[in-house]
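step=encode ok
step=design start
structure_in=
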């Protein structure tokens, strides 16, 4: 029978993560070290994301340098080994990288997946903002209802797909000149219609959110890649986010909370 308690590997990673946790006994016996977490994560990547791409050495080096610079500029310190999601919104790239990062770890691009970010030139469509966006427990995620819009499209993907909500952010209206001031848009990370739109991933097409494949949506959801704060909140007795977490999740001990959006075209 699958345990409803937080998996041992992640619980071990959460020890000392927040002051409140240090004074509280964990609800599981921490007896298994987390050294094998990276090997397990790599195996899950191979099994669950067979279409993932590998970054070339040059591509990886440039992306990691840009990600470090963005984190430094935002004042975000990587204090433990974790996975960070890095999205390159460059229209010629349109990729999400799963990056292994840590204070004493050699940073590595583990895999690349196609995405779609904001499309220019269409009214109501924003250019996906760049920056560092923490996945916070202050905002509740939700799941797609799988309903069809007037064009027969399931905009958030199939029913039950996870929607990660990064709140209101300033973004450039893609239908206006660049000289116009930014406006607020809700930044989401979500799946797209698996039958009609998923094959278009890899080029700008969204209204400003970050569209991902159904496979990547399931992987991030079940592996809790962005959910370290959400799992930690459960340890403190906060049950507000339990309903949105996957009931059969197997969170990685490398779970993090950071989404970085950059534009490699700006470096050219």
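sequence_out=
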């Amino acid at each position: 029978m699958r345990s409803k308690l937080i998996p041992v590997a992640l619980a071990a990673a959460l020890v000392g993560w927040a002051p409140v946790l240090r004074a509280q006994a964990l609800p599981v016996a921490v007896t298994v070290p987390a050294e094998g977490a990276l090997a397990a994560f790599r195996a899950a990547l191979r099994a669950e994301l067979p279409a993932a791409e590998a970054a070339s050495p040059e591509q990886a080096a440039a992306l990691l340098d840009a990600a470090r610079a963005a984190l430094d500029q935002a004042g975000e310190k990587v204090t433990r080994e974790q996975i960070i999601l890095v999205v390159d919104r460059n229209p010629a790239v349109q990729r999400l990288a799963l990056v292994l990062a840590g204070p004493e770890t050699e940073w590595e691009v583990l895999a690349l997946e196609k995405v779609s970010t904001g499309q220019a030139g269409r009214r109501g469509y924003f250019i996906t903002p760049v920056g560092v966006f923490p996945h916070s427990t202050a905002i509740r995620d939700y799941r797609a209802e799988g309903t069809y819009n007037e064009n027969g499209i399931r905009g958030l993907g199939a029913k039950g797909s996870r929607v990660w909500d990064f709140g209101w952010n300033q973004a450039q209206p893609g239908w206006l000149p660049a000289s116009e001031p930014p406006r607020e848009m809700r930044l989401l990370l979500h799946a797209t219609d698996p039958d009609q739109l998923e094959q278009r991933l890899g080029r700008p097409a969204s209204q400003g959110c970050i569209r991902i494949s159904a496979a990547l949506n399931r992987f991030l959801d079940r592996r809790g890649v962005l959910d370290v704060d959400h799992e930690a909140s459960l340890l403190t007795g906060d049950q507000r986010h339990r309903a949105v977490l996957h009931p059969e999740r197997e969170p990685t001990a490398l779970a993090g909370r950071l989404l970085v959006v950059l534009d490699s075209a700006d470096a050219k």
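step=design ok
step=annotate ok -> Strands lie at 82-88, 95-101, 108-114, 126-127, 131-134, 142-143, 162-173, 183-191, 210-212, 258-262.
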